[in-house]
Amino acid sequence: MKLLTAADLARLPALYGTEAIPLADKVVVAKLFSPWSDWTWLVIEYDPAERTAWGWVMGLEQEAGYFSLDELEAIQGPGGLRIERDRHFQPTRLGDIPGATV
């Protein structure tokens, strides 16, 4: 499964493209998650050349940060499970994401 679709890529601003927007008002374009754990990556900005995203990471703690799509695609969980994209996720303000403590 592609972690980011062509539609996601068309909507994602470049890295640093949302600096003037308060964190809670930034739009999350894609939601990636680990089906075998509580880790979630909310994609807000993206650099296609480096395949690096910036967004909100929810795991043991929550924080804004950078993450590599190549690294996420390389993760293999129990039984061969992979990081997945929430196919039903619609772009949403970060402050409106359930569980995100912004």
How would you describe the overall organization of this protein?
Helix content is 12%, strand content 31%. The chain is built from two helices and seven strands. The strands form two sheets. Strands 5-4-3-2-6 form a five-stranded antiparallel sheet. Strands 1-7 form a two-stranded antiparallel sheet. β3 (40-47) and β4 (52-58) form a beta hairpin. The longest helix is centred in the first third of the chain and has 6 residues, at 6-11. The chain is globular and about 40 Å long. The model has no long low-confidence stretch (mean pLDDT 96).
Low-pLDDT runs of 5+ residues are none
Distance between the termini: 29 Å
Structural class: mainly beta
Describe the largest sheet: 5 strands, antiparallel
Shape: globular
**Total beta-strand segments:** 7
Mean pLDDT: 96
Query: Numbering strands along the chain, what is their spatial order in the largest sheet?
Result: 5-4-3-2-6
Q: How many separate helices? A: 2
Proportion in helices: 10-25%
Strand content: 25-35%
- Radius of gyration equals 13 Å
Write down the secondary-structure element order: HEEEEEHEE
